[in-house]
Amino acid sequence: MSVPTTPACARCASSATVAATVSTPGTVRRDLDAKLSPLRSLFLNRALWLVLLTLFGIVTSTLVAAQEEILTSALVLAAFLAPIIDMGGNTGSQAATLVIRSMAVDTVKVTWRDVWAIVRRELMVAACLGATVAALEVVLAYFVKSVSLDIMIIVGATMLIVTVVGGLFGAVLPFAARALRIDPATLSAPLITSIMDLVGVTIYFSIAALVLSDQLL
Question: Count of domains in the chain?
């Protein structure tokens, strides 16, 4: 004979299950739950990553400050820095969100086959997205800021590369988080944004140094 379960009992059972799967040693760590996870767990998991990512921000700002020679020769480059690094983080966050959602509905699993399938699809999509936003950025740069051909090449090439790299990084990161038993929802967006800021700045000024090499001598 089955015993009816009241809503209160169901909630208690659910809470107990979450607590067990989150804190019991030797078990697979369950994702954090905004309603059921202990406040201490929510704080510690989020604080750890935010502190580490703050260090990424310091490294990125230091790298920008070190590009005084390039910025002096082409001050207009500073105007495109924000949209370029934002694009990498935005594209990566989009890709990560799609993968995490697919994991949640169990259409994607942490296997090499699924990783490769997602990477191939994201490469094609990110390349098309990169070409689209790069073309748009170049057109706006020409008509709004009347920049030279060199600057348009730098901006367009950087936008394309950063978008592709961001998409691929965002697609792979949730798999890595799952493999390490880390909640990808807590990790993905802030880590993608911080790392792509650093990567975007590096790519931007590397291309600028290459294209403007004659002016920097």
Answer: 1
Token pair for 196: 């792509």
Q: Model confidence over 10-24: pLDDT tens digits?
A: 444 433 333 333 333
Query: What tens digit of pLDDT does each residue of 58-67 get?
Result: 887 787 777 7
Q: What is the CATH number of the domain that holds 98?
A: 1.10.357.20
Measure the CA–CA gap between 199 and 189, rounded to whole angstroms.
15
Is residue 184 situated within a structural domain? yes
Q: 130-135 — which CB contacts under 8 Å span 24+ positions?
A: 130/91, 130/159, 130/160, 130/161, 130/162, 130/163, 130/164, 130/167, 131/160, 133/87, 133/159, 133/163, 134/159, 134/160, 134/163
Q: State pTM to two decimals.
A: 0.74
